[in-house]
Each structure stands twice: as C-alpha cells, then as structure tokens.
Amino acid sequence: MRRLLAIVALLGACHPAGPGAPPVTDPIPRPEDPASGRPDVHSFSRPQEVRATRIGLALDVRFDERTLAGTATIAVARHDEQAPLVLDTRDLAIQEVEAAALDARARDAPLAEAELAWRSTPWALGPVEPHLGRPLVIRLPPGADVVRVRYRSDPNASGLQWLEPGQTADGQEPFLYSQSQAIHARSWLPCQDSPGVRTSHDAVIHAPAPLRALMAADPDPSRTNAAAGRFAFTMAEPVPAYLIALAVGRVEFAELGPRTGVWAEPSVVANAAYEFSDVERMVRHVEQLYGPYRWGRYDVLVLPPAFPFGGMENPKLTFATPTIIAGDRSLVALIAHELAHSWSGNLVTNATWGDLWLNEGFTVYIERRILESLYGRDRADMEAVLGRQDLDDALAEMAPEDTRLRLELAGRDPDDGLSDVAYEKGALLLTALEHVYGRERFDPFLQSWFSTHAFGSVSTVQFEAFLKEHLTSRFEPLSGQQPVDLAAWLDQPGVPADAPKTRAVAFGRVDAAAGRFADGTERVHSLPTATWTPHEWLRFLRVLPKDIARERLAELDDQFHLTSSDNQEILAQWLEVAVLRGYTAVEPRLEKFLRTVGRRKFVLPLYRALLARGRREDARRIYAISRAGYHPITQHSLDAILGVG
Ligand SMILES: [Zn+2]
Questions:
Q1: Which residues are within 8 A (CB) of 347 and not within 5 positions of it... i.e. 6 or more apart?
Q2: Residues 70, 59: contact at Cβ < 8 Å?
Q3: Measured between alpha carbons, how far is 97 from 91 in angstroms, rounded to an integer?
Q4: In what order do the strands lie in the sheet with 160-163?
Q5: Which of 83, 148, 353, 613 has the most CB atoms at less than 10 Å from its CB?
Q6: pLDDT of res. 321
Q7: Does the pLDDT of residue 7 top 50, yes or no?
Q8: How far is residue 238's CA from residue 60's CA, in Å, rounded to a whole number?
C-alpha cells in the first residue's frame, strides 16, 4: 500500500498543464519480477500495474542545439485501473502530457503521429535518484490507453553522442547516434526502461539534408520522404527500451547478401563491405546451430571512431566500431558476437541487469561456436584463451562479490555489471555444461531455451529450473565427467577449480618464441611470424615479460612497424606494452590514438598504463584534449579513473 500512497502524493502536487514541483521524498518501490522475486532496481516503472505495449516517436534532430525534440506516444495495457503510468526519464525536459483512447483505426496504425482526441492530463516528475534519473508519473483518465509526451532531450543526454564533422571519417557532416544499453534510453525518450518490458515501436524522424536517419527497425518507405528529410520506421517485434536505436549521418549502403548489408560513411563503405563479406554465411551457420533468424534483415552500421564499444547489438542493425576494419577480415569475431545477440539477448533477454550473464555469457559462447563453424577449431580456441586471460586479469582486480554471475546491483550503476565476468565466466559455465553433457545433448538444450523463451525476458532462477528439467536431471554426465556445481558458478566469487581448461595449440609455439626472444636466444628476424594471425600477435605481445629491455621493443618495432600498425587491436595492445615498459618512441602515436579513438576497451587500459608508470600529469593532459571527443559513457569511466570532474 505504501507505494500507492507515494504515487498519489506525487500526483497531488502537480497540475494539468505544467511540471508539478517534485514534492515527494518517499521512494517509489520497484516492480518485482515474478519469475525471480527480484525487483528491477534500475527502473521506476511499474509494469505489473500499467505496462507500455507500443511506442511511437516523432522527433526533430537539431544538431545546432544538440537536442531531439518532439513527442513519444505510448500505448498501455492497464492491469490496475487506479494506478498511474510511471515512466523512466533522465534529464528530459517534459513540456506537455496528454492522454486519449485508441480508436479502432489507431489500433493497427503507426502511433508516431496518431491523430486522436488528445486531452491534457496531470503529470509530475519525481526526485532525481542517483544513476536512475527521475520517474515521470502520469495520471490516466478513465478509458485512456495512450499518452503523448512532448519533450526535449538534454544536450548532454547520456544515451546520445553528437559529433562535429571533424570527428567523423569524412569530416563533412555532423553525426548523431544513440547507445541505450543499459539504462540510457531514458535520456532520449520517456519509457519503461527495464529489460523486462518489451514494446513494439514506430517512428518518424526529421533530419537536416543531406543526412539520413537510420533506426534498428524496418524502414517504412510509404511514410518516408528522404528528399524532405523525413524518415519513417516500424519495429513490429517487441524489444526492451535498451534496444531502441537511432543514428543520423551521411551514410551509404553496400549489399552483402540477400538479407545482409552494411551502412557506413562514403569513404568507409567499400572497406567495410570487404571486411564483413562473410556475414551472410555467418547468419546461415548460426541458424543451423540455434534455429531461425527471426528479425528479417541483418545489417551493420559502421560508426565514427568515438563509439565507446566494439559493437551494440541493436536488432536488425548492429552498430559497430570502425576499429574492427583491419583489411584482412581478422577481427570479425565482433560481428559474430553482435549477430549471436540476435538469439541471446535480443530474442531472450535478461530480466534485470543483475542477470546480464544470461545475455553476454551466452553470446560469447555462441560467438565462439560461430567462429569454430566458419573458421575451424584453432581460431575459436585462440579467442577462448585470450578471453580467459581477460577474465583472469579482471578477477585479480575486482571485488570478490562482483565476480559472481548473479549480481546485486541495487544502488549502483548497471554499467558496473558490464565486466568480463558476465562475458567470459558466463561463457565458461556454458562450455563446462557442453563438456559434461556433450554437444548432442547441449546444442538442442540451447536451441530449446531460445525457442521456449523467444521474445521474452528471463532470470537466472528460470535458467536454473530450465537447466534442471531439460538437461541435468534428464541426462547423466558423459563418462569420466562430474556434474557441474551450478550454485558455485552462479553465487560464488571467482571461477570454480574444475572449470574447463582453455588451450590453443598455436599459442604454445608463440609463448616459446616470446620467451626465447625476451631472453635473447632468438633474434628478431628469426621469429616465426610469417604465418601469425592477429590473435597470435596479441598473444605474443601479452606474454612479453614485464622487465623486457626497451632495446628489444625497439627491435620489434623496427622489424614489424608495430607503432604504425593498421590493425587497431594489435596497435592498442602494442601501445599498452610500450607504455608499461617505458618505450617512449610510441608517444606521438599514443596521443593521436587517444585523441581519435573512443572505444573503451582500448582507451581505458592505455590511461591506466600511464597511471601505472606514475604519469598522472601526462594522462590528464591528454585527457583534457581528448575528453570532448569521447562518448559520455567513456567520459564517465575516465573521469573516475583520472579523478576528474
Ligand atoms: Zn555483447
């Protein structure tokens, strides 16, 4: 009852046509996920009372003001006729809220510009809560089942990055893109921003010429007028808010296959098409393993280099960093990863951010199965060994309670859960199950997990029950195998001692060569690098001893031109090795790299390496020049690391 009182108190202090003074101090309790009994501690929304079912966006893209301005129209299902609609917002300027009843015609039509009998309705913004933003509480008149919120996003919205022309590959036009995971959608649209709430959506986006708007949705040609800067979209499949995505820029398209293609800036699109030429084949391989691809098209949008992640699995349209374009297709594991999310994450979603491993751990596992299927076991093994090394590095630095798969994130930013534990420990658990029960049992089990929960959101509790019913209580472990101690994996810190050992034959040879080179028994020109893949190079750089002489690094650089490598993975690893060992010839390249690339995986370790060498002033000086070009998410991480702001 207390929650109802709090909401009523909040609405009592507002007035119909304007923003009510935020009056309540009572926290608004969170919804509970009935499947797990765990609340989604990162959403104010109360879907068990009033649930958003469809969203229609009509937005103007204003580069001069760095805002999106317009309306979000939200259809709802009312399970409690007395309850208000509660939406998540962060830094949104709410101007007006109206309500209406959907008529028969509007029920099947796009919502974005729906003409209905709109009437103002009372609303109020609650107090700001750390990490979460503010609840927008809207009174629903009797019979109303749709609201229209007129609003503007903040120029510093955490889910948007507005790039100057100089920050793009072509340098001609500005660029905008969204990054909504984990809870940044609320900074550019009011919504029930919980991974447990799925809605379909449609949109009309007005963008200035000659730019094009793209969304993670199907284009709607019947309502689009590109020459007039009007772009319409529909997304019939229901998705959580964190998968709603928008990009606006000067981009061109290249076809890869019947249902696959790539979007990129004009100067990038040909290289991107070459790099991603295996994508159509990849989709077919995953379908053979885990069932049909359910999203129609699969396209990739290559973003400017400020993008803070490797990729974002926005459905139908993966957003990707340009740092994976290496010229030799060696870094397409990232595309395999984002494509795998079409099953794990997008089709079957973690119900709360504390269960992120159900999304990312499954995805890393599938990613390696795709690589094995396409390129053979050696390639997948090398990726797994590098991943295990990342995990061990992370475990050494993290608080033990954060190294469990099932996380408690109350009071914390859900991005805190985005660590190698969810990805690599999660994948390792699935690998352990695969080893114990064999692929003949485990592959159908996974396929049935996806088909049973398609377009739903799941908790770790549900996984435990499903696993028991469909695998562990049904089949005996293969001979010589012991059952997996699931509780240890899920709720204990670290990695269980009987976790599968990850080995890559090729790395044994690389390790030996690195050892001989470091101690001087092998010269630089006799290193057996002729057949090395980038993975072998990464391994070689990672296992070089901490105290290797700088002259040895200079020899490597002279021989292999590592400081001018076009492969950004190798370059970033090399720069880190060089900074940590005081090899200063890389300094100009290091600064240029940090000024132009915003991918967190690369820039965080490089700033940390500077700090580890006692070079705080250098780190802060470079950051001062580079910060404005980084995405808010990257800025947030680096502010904390460097003690800025
Ligand atoms: Zn992922």
A1: 294, 450, 453, 454, 455
A2: yes
A3: 16
A4: 160-163, 175-178, 246-249, 212-215
A5: 353
A6: 95
A7: no
A8: 24
**Strand 456-458 vs strand 348-350: parallel, antiparallel, or unpaired?**
parallel
Query: Residue 313 Cα, ligand 1 centroid: separation in angstroms?
Result: 7
Paired strand residues for 215: 246
Ligand 1 centroid to Cα of residue 358, in Å, is 11
Q: How far is the CA of 411 from the centre of ligand 1 (A)?
A: 23
Q: Is 423 a catalytic residue?
A: yes
Q: Are 459 and 35 in contact (CB under 8 A)?
A: yes
Distance (Å, whole) CA 124 – CA 134: 10
Same CATH topology for 2-155+217-239 and 546-642: the answer is no
* Mean of pLDDT over the chain: 93
Query: Which CATH number describes the domain made up of 352-491?
Result: 1.10.390.10
Give me the pLDDT at residue 188, please: 98
How many angstroms separate the alpha carbon of residue 189 from the centre of ligand 1?
Answer: 23
Catalytic residue among 49, 237, 338, 569: 338
Please say if 408 is a catalytic residue.
no
Say which of 177, 293, 423, 437 is annotated catalytic: 423
**Ligand 1 centroid – CA 530 distance (Å):** 32
Helix (H) or strand (E) holding 198: strand 198-206
CATH class of the structural domain 2-155+217-239: mainly beta
- Whole-model pTM over 0.85: yes
Neighbours of 105 (CB within 10 A): 10
- What pLDDT is stored for residue 418 in this prediction? 84
Fold classification of 546-642 (topology level)? 1.25.40
Domain ranges of the chain: 2-155+217-239, 352-491, 546-642
Nearest to 369 by CA among 391, 393, 389, 344: 344
Q: Using CA atoms, how far apart are residues 4 and 502, in angstroms rounded to an integer?
A: 52
Burial 328-345 (b: 16+ CB within 10 A, else e): eebbbbbbbbbbbbbbbb
**Strand duo 175-178 + 218-219: pairing:** unpaired
By the 8 A CB rule, do 349 and 463 touch? no
CA-CA distance, 445 to 450, in Å (whole number)?
Answer: 9
Question: Looking at the predicted structure, is the pLDDT value of residue 18 above 90?
Answer: no
**Percentage of the chain with pLDDT > 90?**
89
DSSP 259: T
201: β partners: 55, 235
pLDDT of residue 236 exceeding 90:
yes
d(CA 467, CA 72): 40
User: Binning pLDDT at 50, 70 and 90, where does residue 25 land?
Assistant: very low
Strand, coil or helix: what is 556? helix
Straight-line distance from the first to the last Cα atom of the chain, in angstroms, rounded to the nearest whole number = 41
| pLDDT (tens digit per residue) in 175-208 | 999 999 999 999 999 999 999 999 999 999 999 9
